Amino acid sequence: MNEIIGIIIAAVISWLNFVLIDTWMGLPEAPGVKGAEVIGRGIQKRGGDLAGGFFQGNIVCSPDASAGTLLAAIGCFAIGIPEGGFVAAILVFFGNRICADPGYAGTTGALTITVIIAATSYIGLTPEMFIAGMMIAILTIQGLHHPSSSKLLGKIAKKMGRYTEIK
Amino acid sequence: MIMEIVGIIILFAAVRMLLAQDRTERMVYLNVIGFGMSALIALYIQTSFGAIIAITYFVMSTLSSNAIAYSIGRVKDEIILDE
User: What residues of chain B, 6 to 65, have a C-beta less than 8 Å from chain A?
Assistant: First the structure.
């Protein structure tokens, strides 16, 4: 498959994988770790949405499904499909516990993307494409414009019934 | 090709981080650089141990981000008594 098309498809799959799993696991509802609240309030102060801010703060402060997606892709690239994904999932699980994060979003995200990478390897998508795709996906959330990306994440959280009740 | 894309994203995030005014905003851009650096480590050291290094690097970078963000919050609440 053409590399550019592969990277774009991988970016869309990674974006959906981590946003849906993180929202489903309740990242926008409450700051799972202490630092996430500070970053969420900072984004709210700059004109963003609080639930989306908590989501972004949780990504920064603890390995969540976004980290799981990237690290499982790295594991599949350097160790092999699918055993590298399982190694990444175990290390992300330890990382969550070190950060005192009670959730399982990172481990779940790593396992689902491992299954997706294994399945899409038959149509020609390689783990490298998922590494680049995940970088593009994280850039759209964390690197372009925080107030608008937090509003988008807040809308998705409202649709999935996971909007924060904290004022 | 893949390394170039990751490198451009890291440079972009670094420039955005330098231009950012708010300290919490900088932490979010720093997180993008953390993602990119761990991807570059794995793409450059193409061995099993390279993957372990990349994963450990990323997990530890989030741990330190958590500590820094928490202390930024604490510093904001701090009351200086000798003024």
Answer: 6, 9, 12-13, 16, 22-25, 27-32, 35-36, 38-39, 42-43, 45-48, 50-52, 54-56, 58-59, 62-63, 65
Q: Please choose, from the candidates A133, A139, A131, the residue with its C-alpha nearest in 3D space to the C-alpha of residue A13.
A: A133
- Segments making up each domain of chain B, as ranges: 2-77
Say if the Cβ atoms of A75 and B51 lie within 8 Å.
yes
* pLDDT score for A34: 83
Residue type, A104: Y
Task: Convert the pLDDT of each residue in A67-98 to its tens digit.
Answer: 999 999 999 999 988 899 999 999 999 998 98
pTM here?
0.92
- Per residue in A142-156, is it b (16+ CB within 10 Å) or e — as a string? bbeebeebbbebbeb
This model of the complex carries an ipTM of 0.91
End-to-end CA distance of chain B: 56
Are A29 and A51 within 8 A, CB to CB? yes
Report the distance separating Cα A16 and Cα B8, nearest Å. Answer: 23
Contact at CB, A60 and B54, closer than 8 angstroms = no
